[in-house]
Amino acid sequence: MLTPLAGSPSRLRDFFVGAGYNHQQFRQNPILRDLPSARFGNLPPLMEQSSEPTAFHALVRWFFLGVPLDRGPFVESIPRDVLRELVESGMLTVEGQRFTPAVMLTPCDGFLFASDPAHVLNSPEAANMVLWPNPSTRLLQMFTIRRQVRATLDLGTGCGILAIFAAAHSSQVVASDLNPRAAQFVAFNTWVNGVDNVECAIGDTFEPASGRTFDLIISNPPFFITPTTSQIYCENPMELDGYCRGLVRAAPEYLNEGGYLQITFEWVGIEGQAWQDRLSEWLADTGCDAWVLRNYVRSAAAYAAERIGGMMPYSEHTASQRLDEWMAYYRARHVEEIYGGILAMRRRSGRNWIRMEEAPTMDYTEPFGEAITELFANQDRLESDRSIDEMMAWKPRVASDVHLDQQLQLIDGMWRPVAMQLRRPGGLPSSLALEAQVAEFLRSCDGTRNLYDLAHNMAAVVKVDAEQVSRQCCAVVRKLVERRLLLL
What span, in angstroms and rounded, lies between the C-alpha atoms of 84 and 264? Predict the structure, then answer.
C-alpha cells in the first residue's frame, strides 16, 4: 500500500530528476515512447534497450515497464537511502531478493505521478484501476484556465494529476472520484510533489461537493460511449452520452458567479441531426455562457473498432464479438457518428451566449487557458456591442503573437503577393485569409485609436464614403475579434 512518509520528499524527487527519469526524457527517449504490451510484443525490445545496469534503466524497468528486479547491478545502482524510501513508501515491494514495482510513475512538467502499473489492464483488477496521465488528461491540463481562484474541484481526479496542477493557482482544491482507490493515489502524489492544499473526497459526480461552490471545476470524466460499464476509469452506466449531459446540466449549481467548468467529453451524432443540435439542448438555460470545440469525429463503426482495440484482454475473436454487440447498440439508437471535444462554461447573470466551432487538429504541448479567457472576453463584446455606433468606440489591437504570412508568385519578372494569411499559433491556433488592403488597415490597430478614427482615416486615404468604410471595417473587425486575431 502506498504510504506518504514523514519528512520532505524532495530528496526522492531530486534523485529521479538527476537519474534522468523526467519529463524531457519521456518526450525524447525511444524507450519511453510506448507502454509495454503483451498484445504488441514490445517488452523484449524495450528490455534490450534498457539492458545497461544504470540507475535510469533500473527506474525505467521498475516504474515504466513494470518489471521486477533481483538484487544485483540494477538494484545496486540505486543509493541505499533512496531504495529504502522506495520500499517504505510502498512504491516497491520486497520478497527475498526480488524488488517488484507496485506503481507506474509518470513524470510531467516537474511533477511525478504514481498510478496503477500498465499490466493491471490485463488483470481482474482492471475495472477499478487508477489510470496514469493520458492524452485526454494532458489536453485538459493545457486547456485549464490558470488564473488565481479560491476553490477548484477536480471531478473524476484519478491519480490527482489535474488537482495537483490546479493547486498552484487555487487556495483550495477538492479532488473527487467514484473509485475509493483514487484517494490513496491522491494522498501519495500530493506528498511526493510537496503539495498541501488538495483534499480528496470519494463519491459519485457532484455528491462530494454537496453544499459547496467553486470558481473552477475541471473534469476528465469517464466519457466513453459504450454498451458496457465494467471499466470505471473510462465507462459509465448512463445511456449513450447521458453522463456528460448530466454533468453539464448539474455543474452551474456548484459554480460561483464568474466561475468556469472545463471538461473533455464525447457525444453522439443521431441520424438526421447536426453535431451542434444535441449540445444546444444540453447548454440551453444553464445560466452559463458556453464555448465548445469539436476536435474529432468518428463513424460509429470506426469508433467501436478503435475503443475495442484498446481494451484488455484482447483477442481477434472477442474483438469481433464485441464489435457486433456495439454496432447493434448504436444501430438501435440511430447513432451514426461520435464526436469528441472540449467545453468551457462560465456562470454569468444576464443573457447568455453559446458558441461552437471545429478544429480538427490541436497542439497540446503548451497551455492555452489564457486563450479561453480572451475568447470569452471577446465574445462578451461581440454579443453586447452589435450596432455600428457601439463598435465605433472599440480600440482594436493586433495580438502580439500574430503573424502575417504572404505567398508570392513570379509575375512579369516580379515577385508579387497573391495570398495573405493572418495567423496566431499556440495551443489554440487561429488564422484568416486577408486582402492586402485589410492587412494595411491592421497596421494601425495598436489599441490606442478607436474604430471610428481608424475607419475615417482609411476612408480619406481610399477616397470612399466614410459610412461605407465604417460598415466594412466593422464586419472585418468582428470576424478578427471572434478568431482572437484582434483584441479589444
Answer: 39
How many angstroms separate the CA atoms of 284 and 352, rounded? 9
Mean pLDDT, residues 21-27 taken together:
89
DSSP alpha helix (H) spans, 284-344: 300-309, 316-332
Q: Which residues, in sequence order, are CB contacts of 329 under 8 Å at separation 6+?
A: 226, 227
Identify the three-state secondary structure at position 48: helix
CA distance linking residue 22 with residue 445, whole number of Å: 43
Q: In what order do the strands lie in the sheet with 92-95?
A: 69-70, 98-101, 92-95
Question: What gap in Å lies between CA 76 and CA 186, rounded to an integer?
Answer: 30
Q: How far are the Cα atoms of 42, 119, 231, 448 from residue 39, in angstroms, in the given order?
A: 8, 11, 19, 61
Q: What is the Cα 426 distance to its own chain's centre? A: 14
Selection from 335, 347, 224, 343 nearest residue 279 by Cα: 343
448: pLDDT strictly greater than 70? yes
- Residues 412-437 have pLDDT tens digits of 999 988 899 999 988 888 999 998 88
The predicted model gives 331-354 an average pLDDT of 97
User: Domains in the chain, start-ordered, CATH in brackets?
Assistant: 10-102 (no CATH), 126-352 (3.40.50.150), 388-487 (1.10.10.1150)
Q: How far are the Cα atoms of 104, 135, 171 from residue 8, in angstroms, in the given order?
A: 21, 30, 21
pLDDT band at 461 (very low <50, low <70, confident <90, very high): confident
Q: Is 229 helix (H, G, I), strand (E, B) or coil?
A: coil
d(CA 470, CA 466): 6
Residue 56 to residue 447: CA distance in whole angstroms: 52
Residue 129 DSSP symbol? P
**pLDDT tens profile 112-139:** 999 999 888 777 777 889 999 889 999 9
Angle at 37 between CA 35 and CA 42, to 5 degrees: 85
Cα–Cα distance measured from residue 432 to residue 485, given in angstroms and rounded to the nearest whole number: 9
Secondary structure of residue 465 in the 3-state scheme? coil
* Residue 181 three-state SS: helix
The reply to whether the predicted model has a pTM over 0.90 is yes
Nearest to 483 by CA among 416, 425, 407, 431: 431
DSSP 133: P
What is the percent of the chain with per-residue pLDDT over 90, rounded to a whole number?
A: 78
Residue 459 φ/ψ region, left for φ over 0, alpha for ψ in the -120 to 50 degree band, beta for the rest: alpha
Among 130-134, 201-205, 257-261, name the one with the lowest average pLDDT.
130-134
